[in-house]
Structure formats: C-alpha cells, structure tokens
Amino acid sequence: MFVVVIISITNIFAQSTLVATLTHGTDITMYYGTTALQSAHNAAESGDVINLSGGKFDGFTITKALTIRGTGVDSALPTSLTTSTINIPGEDTNRLTMEGINFTNTITMDGTFEKPYFIKCNFLNLSFKSSSNISKATYINCKVKRFMEFPGGSKSSIQFMNGYIGYYNNTSSDSGKSIIENSILYSREYANEIEKYGNSQFINCIMIKGGYENGSVYSIPSSSSGFNCLFVNYKKDPIANSQGSFVDCMSTSSISGLFKDYPATYPDSQTFSALTFELTDEAKAAYLGIDGKEVGIYGGNYPYTSTPSYPQITKMDVSKKASADGKLNVEIEVNAAE
C-alpha cells in the first residue's frame, strides 16, 4: 500500500512528469519521460508489473506478458499510449494484462499467443493482422471509438464484454470465433453494414445503424449467430434477412427513447462513444437479454464502469504542520471498482 500511495502522490503532485514504476519481486525501479514505459518494459521480465502516471507515453512494440496499469480513462489525468504493436512470443506462458489506459491511435495485434486481457481501456483503432493467431483476447468495459477489424486470413478470436465498438469488421478465418456480449455496435463513420459482422456470436448486444443509406440488404453472414440482441434504426429488417441464426432478437425504428442522453442527430463514432449508454426506464423494461437483465453495457455479468479495479487515490489532504506531539494528520480517500 505504501508503494501505491507513493505512485499516486506522484500522479497528483507531479503531473508534468511521466513516470513508469516497474515492480519485479521486491525491487522497485522508476523511469521518467515519454519513453518511460518502453524503458520499464525493456528492463522487465515476463510477469512483472508496471504502474504508469497520467500523461502521454510513446508507443512501441510490446513483446513481454506484463501487467501494465494506467490511471483510468476518465481520471483527472488519464494515461495515454500512442500507436503500438502487441506481439507476445508464443512460448511466454504469462498473461499480458493492460488496464485503465487510453490508446490514442491504432493498436495492432500480431503473432501467435493466448489470452491477453484488457480491462477498462479506450482504443481509437484496434486491428488484428491477417497473419495473427491470438486466441481468446479478452476485453471488458472497453471502448473502441472508431474501428475493430479482423482481415481475411486472421485466426484470432476475442471475447468482448460490456463495451462499445464504433465499427466492427470481421472477415477472418472460421477457426477464430469471436463472442461479443452486452455491447454497443455502431455503424456510422464508414457507412458499413452488418454484412461485415462475420464469424461472431452476439449476445444481449445493441446494434445501431447510425446514418448512411446505400441500399444494401442488411444481412449478417451465416458464420454468425445472436441471442436477444436489439437492432436500432435499420430500414430493412436485419433479423429477417440475416443468414445466421438469431434467436429472440428485437428491433426499434429510432434511437429516440432508447438512451437517457441520446443525441438529436447521429454523430460520428468517436462522439457517439462518449455517451453513457444508460437506457431509459422504458427501454430497460422492454429490451431484456438472455439472462433477464437489460441489454447493453449495464446488463450481464460485467456492468460497465471506467473505475479501475485496483486502488486509486482520489483525495489526499495533508496538514500543513504537525501537532504538538509530532504527529502529522493525513486524510486519504481511495477508490476502486468492485
């Protein structure tokens, strides 16, 4: 806890300084500047932990299965990372875990490895290379603001739960089946249709048609299936036209009355991602998932929150002077998701 306090004090009082704190066993080493994360990564061994201050760090290729923690995507000073590639050697038996980080450009997933874990992160673009074979990449409470794509040839698969995807394009190999659960999928910026939603299973999702009309038949490929999903603003019935199996799915012609903070017009995908996506009371009662809970990001087993799962100091008051008996009064408030 003392280490956590020191790191958090650095975040609060030295906001102009970028700090990456590497923990290896009982050894703690701190690195500074825009390349601090890369320096800590280079010095780390698989399984080590790196805690990051707020601020924007340079991107690089991550090749070690580490635990990397930011300050949270909605913190007063969030941690950001620019364009990066993630390629963990297949023989590395540890699990890459990244939490509370804003990825401000494209993150490319490459190579052959298993079960990377991303929680409460925001991505601008997330791309799996056509040569990738990454099994069960897990994303919980994450937002992909512009696009997530699996090109043809990719054998990668994901589990994406209680988050947002601005543009989903999956034309990958049938050997990599993805599961998307209690999430928002929004097609607007690229005028795409759900013909791109291949090789996936959708559960309790809300799929929104945000704009452009191009006359295509709305048809999810036969490689996909769905349960208790809600289709919004599709002028052609995607349930009737879908080649895949969709059970107990629903539709509504307008976004009006769906979200408490819905916009007057359909914005681009990045702006739309800023919504809370909290359903109105009427929508919560009308649109239920396979588990009897509301569809969307606040239903299911992992209701959306951006609060990190590890302790974060949100308030600290230190007396200006010690008391007569030499004691200094310190009040600390710590917050963490359940």
Characterise this structure:
By secondary structure, the chain is mainly beta. The protein is built from five helices and 29 strands. The chain has helices at residues 2-13, 36-43, 238-241, 269-272, 281-286, and strands at 19-24, 27-32, 49-52, 55-57, 61-62, 67-69, 79-81, 84-86, 97-99, 101-109, 112-114, 117-119, 122-128, 133-135, 137-140, 143-150, 158-161, 164-165, 168-170, 178-181, 184-187, 200-203, 206-209, 225-227, 230-232, 245-247, 250-252, 312-318, 330-335. The strands form four sheets. Strands 4, 5, 7, 8, 10, 13, 16, 18, 19, 21, 23, 25 and 27 form a 13-stranded parallel beta sheet that branches. Strands 2-1-3-6-9-12-15-17-20-22-24-26 form a twelve-stranded mixed beta sheet, with helices on both faces. The longest helix has 12 residues, at 2-13. It is globular. It starts with a helix and ends with a strand. Residues 1-15 have low confidence and may be disordered.
